[in-house]
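Researcher: Please predict.
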Amino acid sequence: MTALSGLDQALWDIAGKHYGLPVYKLLGGPVRDRIRVYAHWGIRDMTDEGLAQSKERLEMLQKMGYTGYKSGPGGKWRAHEPPSTIDAFVKRAYLMREWVGPDVELAFDFHGKMTPGLAIEVCSELKGMRPMFVEEPVPQENVDALKLVSDHVSFPIATGERLFARWDFREVLEKQAVSLIQPDASHVGGITELKKVANMAEVYYVHIMPHCAIGPVALTACMHVDAAVPNFLIQEQIDQGLGEGLFREPWKVTDGHIPLPTAPGLGFEIEEKTLKDVCKYAEELGGEYYYENDGSVADW
């Protein structure tokens, strides 16, 4: 599906350039004139160094124009954890709220680390700081387990980055297992399939927040669908995702939004001279191999 997604995005770019129109106009036209985005930010730990680094990153992102952020609980979570582990994460979450105030939205990605019981317990502790959403509190394969968490949590639950095509989303939507879905234009089947998933979700009053953890081309593909569907909420955006060093004119964030592309096709031109320098492989997060304390395989 990732390979098909790339081909689909390229074909939409070709079609847009052939007709001299941005892709979102070929999708039916825009329903908004800018795309809201959020960045990744969190408090790594409560040491003086950790707090200083977190403050520094927050100030940088604020200066770049962001008004929404997503973090995670950090570490490797087992079927259940002692109060100290849960309390440490909750304390960081409330401190984040204290730093940014009530007008900024904060979200958390649990990355499928938890069991339903633990996810419900942790989410109940976060209730007072009013998260925008919690993403993948449990693995996505068991929709009933996901719904169990949603039914016991007072704020939105999200999933979808590991779901592919309309058929993977069908049961999630039919069971109203989440409030928000996160299909990824570079994995779900491209721009074509992302729009179909969004249209299907609209019937269930579910909004999309496309996942995007690859880079600026993927971000731009998502943005064209974001522009054309009414049930869009916010777009994920990662470091270097605006096209710095890769696009001749990188996107810019203003007051938490990116203006719609205006050039034909996807709306960017690749700076081919710097392509090799920008697109280098690098291990991320825990590296290629990640293990629990007892040596069993873990997710990051």
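Model: The radius of gyration is 19 Å.
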